[in-house]
Amino acid sequence: MTAVSQSGVQPGLVVAGFGRHCLVETPDGERVICHPRGKKSQSVVGDRVQWLPSEDEGTIEKVEPRSNLFYRQDEMRTKSFAANLDQVLILIAAEPEFSESQLTRALIAAEAERITPIIALNKSDLAEPFGRAWAKLAPYRAMGYQVLSLAIKPKNSGPVANEAQTRQLGDLLRGKKTLVLGPSGAGKSSLTNLLVPDAQVLTAEISQALNSGKHTTTSTTLYWLDAGRTSALIDSPGFQEFGLHHLDAMHLANYMPDLKAHAQDCKFYNCTHLHEPGCGVISEVKSASGPVVISASRYRLYSELFAELTQAPRY
Q1: Which of 4, 40, 104, 246 is an S-S bond match for 73, by CB 3.0 to 4.6 Å?
Q2: Is the pTM of this model over 0.85?
Q3: What span, in angstroms and rounded, lies between the C-alpha atoms of 53 and 20?
Q4: CA separation (Å) from 152 to 157, 181, 225?
Q5: Which fold has domain 10-63?
């Protein structure tokens, strides 16, 4: 039975978010539509909450402290994806060609929250574009990031996945809460449908439950991968931009393993790694001789991000 306090408040887990409202799962597996106590929703998928039943819905009374929160922020707004994650699976594709800037931004956001990132490159069945994309990821493998190859397709296009690749992915997801992140067209829906065969049914049930005119479309959803509810896949909407305005530009190099490896060699403690004499990062970029090489494209991305995070806000 679900534990209930004297005040009637019950524990729950947020498993879907849509506008101000969310879907909360009780320890018994029951799912209830909940809304925030105030005007603004403070809960996200993955949050442990205390909620109060009221007729056929509920009210979020408290969000328990989080171990982490994965989010992005541009000049105008903040977009939270999920909380209390073990890892982020960044799904990109060999075709259309992925954006290294988007990939780097997602990796930095994960590093900043101490969430383990995994890079998965889809469409390994497309030999030539996959070879180019795999080579493009060489600096990330050298930094120690785990990079998987996948070949996941929609169900109506023949074999939907490589079995060995799927097993490897399943092993990495077991016992973890994993957010799947990636741009539109990378294959996130196909991946979710492969790992969660009932995903479309579950999503339809949520939409039907919310068909009251006051709710918006579900944006992020948690799916259990096992009956014991120990492994979870969190599906998120695709994105085209990934702002990092919540981060301090002076800490940026610490979230990029290739730069961090050489930043300790700088002459000045407050080095920006852009123009200072005695900079370990600039020295490595010029020599490219160390065990952790800083590629020209990675240094260019760092320079662009630093400029973006230090420019005056536009209003």
Answers
A1: 246
A2: yes
A3: 17
A4: 10, 15, 17
A5: OB fold (Dihydrolipoamide Acetyltransferase, E2P) (2.40.50)
